[in-house]
TrEMBL record:
The lineage of its organism: Bacteria, Pseudomonadati, Bacteroidota, Sphingobacteriia, Sphingobacteriales. PANTHER family: BCDNA.GH03377 (PTHR43818). One of its GO terms (molecular function) is nucleotide binding. InterPro entries: Gfo/Idh/MocA-like_OxRdtase_N, Gfo/Idh/MocA_oxidrdct_glycsds, GFO_IDH_MocA-like_dom, NAD(P)-bd_dom_sf. Keywords: Oxidoreductase. Residues 132-258 form the GFO/IDH/MocA-like oxidoreductase domain. Residues 4-124 form the Gfo/Idh/MocA-like oxidoreductase N-terminal domain. This is Gfo/Idh/MocA family oxidoreductase.
Amino acid sequence: MSKINWGIIGCGNVTEVKSGPAFNKVPNSSLVAVMRRDGAKAEDYAKRHGVPKWYNDARQLIQDPDVNAIYVATPPASHEEYALAALEAGKPVYVEKPFTLSQESAIRMSGAAAKYNTRLTVAHYRRGLQLFKKIKELLQQRVIGDIRFVSLQMLQPPQSDMIAKTEENWRLNPDISGGGLFHDLAPHQLDLMIWFFGKVKRAEGFSLNQAEAYQADDLVSGELLFDNNILFRGIWCFTVLPEESRDICEIVGSEGKISFSVFGDHYVLHQNGKEERTVFALPQHIQQPMIEEVVQYFMGTGPNPCTAQDGVDVMKIIDTFTGRG
Protein backbone atom coordinates (compact mmCIF):
# COMPACT_ATOMS: atom_id res chain seq x y z
CA MET A 1 0.00 0.00 0.00
CA SER A 2 1.21 3.50 -0.84
CA LYS A 3 -1.51 5.14 1.26
CA ILE A 4 -3.86 3.92 3.96
CA ASN A 5 -7.50 4.85 3.35
CA TRP A 6 -9.35 4.18 6.56
CA GLY A 7 -12.90 3.19 7.30
CA ILE A 8 -14.12 3.45 10.90
CA ILE A 9 -16.69 0.98 12.19
CA GLY A 10 -18.30 2.59 15.22
CA CYS A 11 -17.74 6.35 15.03
CA GLY A 12 -18.84 7.03 18.61
CA ASN A 13 -17.47 9.29 21.32
CA VAL A 14 -14.06 7.62 21.53
CA THR A 15 -13.36 8.63 17.92
CA GLU A 16 -14.37 12.30 18.24
CA VAL A 17 -11.00 13.52 19.58
CA LYS A 18 -8.91 10.59 20.78
CA SER A 19 -8.51 8.89 17.42
CA GLY A 20 -10.73 9.94 14.50
CA PRO A 21 -9.09 13.24 13.47
CA ALA A 22 -5.63 11.68 13.71
CA PHE A 23 -6.25 9.49 10.67
CA ASN A 24 -6.14 12.62 8.49
CA LYS A 25 -3.09 14.08 10.26
CA VAL A 26 -0.75 11.12 9.96
CA PRO A 27 1.42 10.95 6.79
CA ASN A 28 0.14 8.60 4.06
CA SER A 29 -3.22 8.25 5.80
CA SER A 30 -6.74 9.52 5.28
CA LEU A 31 -10.21 8.80 6.69
CA VAL A 32 -12.56 8.10 3.79
CA ALA A 33 -15.60 6.40 5.37
CA VAL A 34 -17.35 5.92 8.70
CA MET A 35 -20.09 3.60 9.88
CA ARG A 36 -22.60 3.64 12.72
CA ARG A 37 -25.81 1.65 13.02
CA ASP A 38 -27.68 4.92 13.49
CA GLY A 39 -27.30 6.33 9.99
CA ALA A 40 -28.19 9.88 11.04
CA LYS A 41 -25.36 9.88 13.57
CA ALA A 42 -22.94 8.44 11.03
CA GLU A 43 -23.92 11.15 8.54
CA ASP A 44 -23.52 13.83 11.20
CA TYR A 45 -20.06 12.56 12.11
CA ALA A 46 -19.01 12.46 8.46
CA LYS A 47 -20.17 16.02 7.83
CA ARG A 48 -18.52 17.42 10.97
CA HIS A 49 -15.20 15.70 10.29
CA GLY A 50 -15.11 16.12 6.51
CA VAL A 51 -15.37 12.39 5.78
CA PRO A 52 -16.52 11.66 2.19
CA LYS A 53 -18.67 8.56 2.90
CA TRP A 54 -20.85 7.19 5.65
CA TYR A 55 -22.72 3.91 6.17
CA ASN A 56 -25.13 2.29 8.61
CA ASP A 57 -23.99 -1.21 7.61
CA ALA A 58 -20.49 -2.38 8.54
CA ARG A 59 -20.22 -4.88 5.70
CA GLN A 60 -20.93 -2.18 3.13
CA LEU A 61 -18.06 -0.16 4.55
CA ILE A 62 -15.76 -3.19 4.57
CA GLN A 63 -16.58 -3.91 0.92
CA ASP A 64 -16.07 -0.30 -0.17
CA PRO A 65 -13.21 -0.43 -2.74
CA ASP A 66 -11.96 2.98 -1.59
CA VAL A 67 -11.37 1.62 1.94
CA ASN A 68 -8.20 -0.45 2.35
CA ALA A 69 -7.92 -0.55 6.17
CA ILE A 70 -10.44 -0.85 8.98
CA TYR A 71 -10.52 0.68 12.47
CA VAL A 72 -12.95 -1.21 14.72
CA ALA A 73 -14.10 1.24 17.42
CA THR A 74 -17.37 -0.34 18.52
CA PRO A 75 -17.95 -1.68 22.05
CA PRO A 76 -16.02 -4.95 22.58
CA ALA A 77 -18.94 -7.33 22.00
CA SER A 78 -18.74 -6.78 18.24
CA HIS A 79 -14.95 -6.53 17.83
CA GLU A 80 -14.56 -10.15 16.80
CA GLU A 81 -17.40 -10.11 14.27
CA TYR A 82 -16.19 -7.00 12.48
CA ALA A 83 -12.49 -7.84 12.67
CA LEU A 84 -13.06 -11.29 11.19
CA ALA A 85 -15.17 -9.85 8.36
CA ALA A 86 -12.50 -7.29 7.51
CA LEU A 87 -9.65 -9.80 7.71
CA GLU A 88 -11.56 -12.20 5.44
CA ALA A 89 -11.93 -9.32 2.97
CA GLY A 90 -8.15 -8.92 3.02
CA LYS A 91 -8.17 -5.55 4.78
CA PRO A 92 -5.82 -4.90 7.71
CA VAL A 93 -7.49 -4.07 11.01
CA TYR A 94 -6.77 -1.78 13.96
CA VAL A 95 -8.95 -2.86 16.91
CA GLU A 96 -9.86 -0.78 19.94
CA LYS A 97 -9.11 -2.01 23.45
CA PRO A 98 -10.12 -4.14 25.14
CA PHE A 99 -9.21 -6.38 22.21
CA THR A 100 -12.40 -8.40 22.64
CA LEU A 101 -14.56 -10.14 25.27
CA SER A 102 -12.33 -13.06 26.21
CA GLN A 103 -9.11 -14.93 25.61
CA GLU A 104 -10.93 -17.46 23.41
CA SER A 105 -12.30 -14.68 21.21
CA ALA A 106 -8.85 -13.09 21.01
CA ILE A 107 -7.33 -16.39 19.90
CA ARG A 108 -9.91 -16.66 17.11
CA MET A 109 -9.10 -13.14 15.94
CA SER A 110 -5.36 -13.81 16.00
CA GLY A 111 -5.93 -17.05 14.11
CA ALA A 112 -7.98 -15.27 11.45
CA ALA A 113 -5.16 -12.78 10.84
CA ALA A 114 -2.80 -15.70 10.26
CA LYS A 115 -5.32 -17.62 8.14
CA TYR A 116 -5.99 -14.71 5.81
CA ASN A 117 -2.40 -13.42 5.99
CA THR A 118 -3.73 -9.96 6.85
CA ARG A 119 -2.36 -7.51 9.39
CA LEU A 120 -4.00 -6.95 12.78
CA THR A 121 -2.99 -4.44 15.47
CA VAL A 122 -4.46 -3.80 18.94
CA ALA A 123 -5.05 -0.20 20.05
CA HIS A 124 -2.99 -0.35 23.25
CA TYR A 125 -1.96 3.12 22.18
CA ARG A 126 -0.08 4.18 25.29
CA ARG A 127 2.84 2.28 23.81
CA GLY A 128 3.09 5.11 21.30
CA LEU A 129 3.41 7.94 23.85
CA GLN A 130 6.84 9.39 24.55
CA LEU A 131 6.23 9.14 28.30
CA PHE A 132 6.12 5.35 28.22
CA LYS A 133 8.82 5.01 25.59
CA LYS A 134 11.08 6.93 27.97
CA ILE A 135 10.16 4.75 30.95
CA LYS A 136 10.91 1.64 28.89
CA GLU A 137 14.24 3.16 27.88
CA LEU A 138 15.13 3.83 31.53
CA LEU A 139 14.30 0.23 32.42
CA GLN A 140 16.40 -1.12 29.55
CA GLN A 141 19.29 1.10 30.63
CA ARG A 142 18.94 -0.29 34.17
CA VAL A 143 18.78 3.22 35.60
CA ILE A 144 17.10 1.82 38.74
CA GLY A 145 19.13 -1.39 38.70
CA ASP A 146 17.53 -4.83 38.80
CA ILE A 147 13.73 -4.67 38.93
CA ARG A 148 12.38 -6.19 42.13
CA PHE A 149 8.63 -5.70 41.88
CA VAL A 150 5.85 -3.51 40.48
CA SER A 151 2.87 -2.15 42.42
CA LEU A 152 -0.21 -0.62 40.80
CA GLN A 153 -3.25 0.99 42.40
CA MET A 154 -6.27 2.21 40.45
CA LEU A 155 -8.85 3.55 42.92
CA GLN A 156 -11.77 5.58 41.60
CA PRO A 157 -15.16 6.79 42.89
CA PRO A 158 -18.35 5.52 41.23
CA GLN A 159 -18.65 8.75 39.21
CA SER A 160 -15.11 9.06 37.89
CA ASP A 161 -14.03 11.66 35.34
CA MET A 162 -11.54 9.09 34.05
CA ILE A 163 -14.31 7.04 32.44
CA ALA A 164 -15.40 8.19 29.00
CA LYS A 165 -19.00 9.37 28.94
CA THR A 166 -21.40 7.67 26.51
CA GLU A 167 -25.12 7.87 25.83
CA GLU A 168 -25.51 4.33 27.15
CA ASN A 169 -23.11 3.23 29.90
CA TRP A 170 -22.24 0.01 28.12
CA ARG A 171 -18.97 -0.28 30.04
CA LEU A 172 -20.95 -1.57 33.02
CA ASN A 173 -22.74 -4.25 30.99
CA PRO A 174 -20.62 -7.42 30.90
CA ASP A 175 -22.47 -8.72 27.84
CA ILE A 176 -21.20 -5.72 25.87
CA SER A 177 -17.92 -4.82 27.56
CA GLY A 178 -16.78 -8.19 28.89
CA GLY A 179 -16.84 -6.91 32.47
CA GLY A 180 -16.86 -3.53 34.16
CA LEU A 181 -14.57 -0.54 34.45
CA PHE A 182 -11.63 -2.87 35.06
CA HIS A 183 -12.09 -4.19 31.52
CA ASP A 184 -12.08 -0.62 30.20
CA LEU A 185 -8.96 0.69 31.97
CA ALA A 186 -6.79 -2.30 32.86
CA PRO A 187 -5.91 -3.32 29.27
CA HIS A 188 -3.67 -0.25 28.96
CA GLN A 189 -2.01 -0.95 32.30
CA LEU A 190 -1.51 -4.68 31.79
CA ASP A 191 -0.29 -4.19 28.23
CA LEU A 192 2.39 -1.77 29.41
CA MET A 193 3.59 -4.35 31.94
CA ILE A 194 3.94 -6.93 29.15
CA TRP A 195 5.67 -4.35 26.95
CA PHE A 196 8.09 -3.45 29.74
CA PHE A 197 8.81 -6.88 31.22
CA GLY A 198 7.96 -9.56 28.66
CA LYS A 199 6.15 -12.87 29.00
CA VAL A 200 4.08 -13.80 32.03
CA LYS A 201 4.91 -17.11 33.71
CA ARG A 202 2.04 -17.17 36.19
CA ALA A 203 -1.07 -15.11 36.94
CA GLU A 204 -3.51 -15.21 39.86
CA GLY A 205 -6.33 -12.91 40.92
CA PHE A 206 -9.68 -12.24 42.55
CA SER A 207 -12.71 -10.31 41.38
CA LEU A 208 -15.75 -9.16 43.37
CA ASN A 209 -18.92 -7.16 43.01
CA GLN A 210 -18.87 -5.55 46.46
CA ALA A 211 -21.22 -2.59 46.08
CA GLU A 212 -23.65 -4.42 43.76
CA ALA A 213 -24.48 -1.11 42.08
CA TYR A 214 -24.39 -2.77 38.64
CA GLN A 215 -23.86 -6.20 37.10
CA ALA A 216 -20.10 -6.03 36.68
CA ASP A 217 -17.44 -6.58 39.35
CA ASP A 218 -16.15 -3.37 40.93
CA LEU A 219 -13.06 -4.74 42.74
CA VAL A 220 -10.24 -6.72 41.11
CA SER A 221 -6.84 -7.73 42.44
CA GLY A 222 -4.14 -9.66 40.66
CA GLU A 223 -0.53 -10.79 40.66
CA LEU A 224 1.77 -11.58 37.76
CA LEU A 225 5.09 -13.39 37.82
CA PHE A 226 7.10 -12.70 34.69
CA ASP A 227 9.58 -15.11 33.12
CA ASN A 228 12.39 -12.87 34.41
CA ASN A 229 11.06 -13.27 37.99
CA ILE A 230 9.73 -9.72 38.24
CA LEU A 231 6.59 -9.68 40.38
CA PHE A 232 3.60 -7.41 39.68
CA ARG A 233 0.73 -6.74 42.07
CA GLY A 234 -2.29 -4.62 41.15
CA ILE A 235 -5.58 -3.60 42.68
CA TRP A 236 -8.52 -1.90 40.98
CA CYS A 237 -11.46 -0.54 42.98
CA PHE A 238 -14.22 1.65 41.56
CA THR A 239 -16.25 2.40 44.68
CA VAL A 240 -13.94 4.54 46.84
CA LEU A 241 -14.61 8.07 48.06
CA PRO A 242 -13.40 10.84 45.71
CA GLU A 243 -10.69 11.87 48.18
CA GLU A 244 -9.33 8.30 48.08
CA SER A 245 -8.83 8.37 44.30
CA ARG A 246 -5.48 7.00 43.27
CA ASP A 247 -3.83 6.15 39.97
CA ILE A 248 -0.24 5.13 40.57
CA CYS A 249 2.22 2.56 39.31
CA GLU A 250 5.58 2.09 41.04
CA ILE A 251 8.45 0.11 39.57
CA VAL A 252 10.92 -0.68 42.36
CA GLY A 253 14.49 -1.59 41.53
CA SER A 254 17.67 -2.36 43.43
CA GLU A 255 18.93 1.20 42.88
CA GLY A 256 15.78 3.34 42.86
CA LYS A 257 12.15 3.59 41.84
CA ILE A 258 10.09 4.98 38.95
CA SER A 259 6.53 6.08 39.71
CA PHE A 260 3.92 7.21 37.21
CA SER A 261 0.26 7.14 36.27
CA VAL A 262 -0.74 5.17 33.18
CA PHE A 263 -3.29 7.93 32.55
CA GLY A 264 -1.02 10.84 33.46
CA ASP A 265 1.63 13.00 31.81
CA HIS A 266 4.79 12.46 33.88
CA TYR A 267 7.04 10.07 35.73
CA VAL A 268 9.13 10.54 38.87
CA LEU A 269 12.57 9.00 39.29
CA HIS A 270 13.40 8.31 42.95
CA GLN A 271 17.09 7.80 43.73
CA ASN A 272 19.42 8.56 46.64
CA GLY A 273 16.72 10.37 48.58
CA LYS A 274 15.95 12.71 45.66
CA GLU A 275 13.04 12.94 43.23
CA GLU A 276 13.33 13.99 39.57
CA ARG A 277 10.00 14.72 37.88
CA THR A 278 9.79 14.70 34.06
CA VAL A 279 6.63 15.95 32.34
CA PHE A 280 5.58 15.15 28.76
CA ALA A 281 3.14 17.05 26.57
CA LEU A 282 0.37 14.69 25.57
CA PRO A 283 -0.87 14.90 21.96
CA GLN A 284 -4.24 16.49 21.25
CA HIS A 285 -5.32 13.20 19.69
CA ILE A 286 -3.96 10.67 22.17
CA GLN A 287 -3.84 7.84 19.62
CA GLN A 288 -2.02 9.77 16.91
CA PRO A 289 1.50 8.47 17.67
CA MET A 290 0.23 4.89 17.69
CA ILE A 291 -1.79 5.41 14.51
CA GLU A 292 1.34 6.68 12.79
CA GLU A 293 3.12 3.43 13.72
CA VAL A 294 0.12 1.38 12.57
CA VAL A 295 0.12 3.14 9.20
CA GLN A 296 3.80 2.35 8.77
CA TYR A 297 3.14 -1.28 9.66
CA PHE A 298 0.20 -1.57 7.27
CA MET A 299 2.36 -0.05 4.52
CA GLY A 300 5.13 -2.54 5.23
CA THR A 301 7.68 0.02 6.41
CA GLY A 302 7.64 -0.69 10.14
CA PRO A 303 6.96 -3.40 12.75
CA ASN A 304 3.61 -4.18 14.32
CA PRO A 305 3.40 -1.84 17.35
CA CYS A 306 1.02 -4.17 19.22
CA THR A 307 0.41 -7.64 17.88
CA ALA A 308 -2.65 -9.85 18.07
CA GLN A 309 -0.66 -12.13 20.37
CA ASP A 310 -0.14 -9.15 22.70
CA GLY A 311 -3.93 -8.78 22.70
CA VAL A 312 -4.35 -12.48 23.49
CA ASP A 313 -1.87 -12.21 26.37
CA VAL A 314 -3.70 -9.25 27.91
CA MET A 315 -7.09 -10.96 27.59
CA LYS A 316 -5.67 -14.08 29.23
CA ILE A 317 -4.58 -12.02 32.24
CA ILE A 318 -7.95 -10.27 32.43
CA ASP A 319 -9.78 -13.60 32.30
CA THR A 320 -7.51 -15.02 35.01
CA PHE A 321 -7.91 -12.05 37.34
CA THR A 322 -11.69 -12.12 36.95
CA GLY A 323 -12.02 -15.87 37.43
CA ARG A 324 -12.73 -16.83 33.83
CA GLY A 325 -9.28 -18.08 32.88
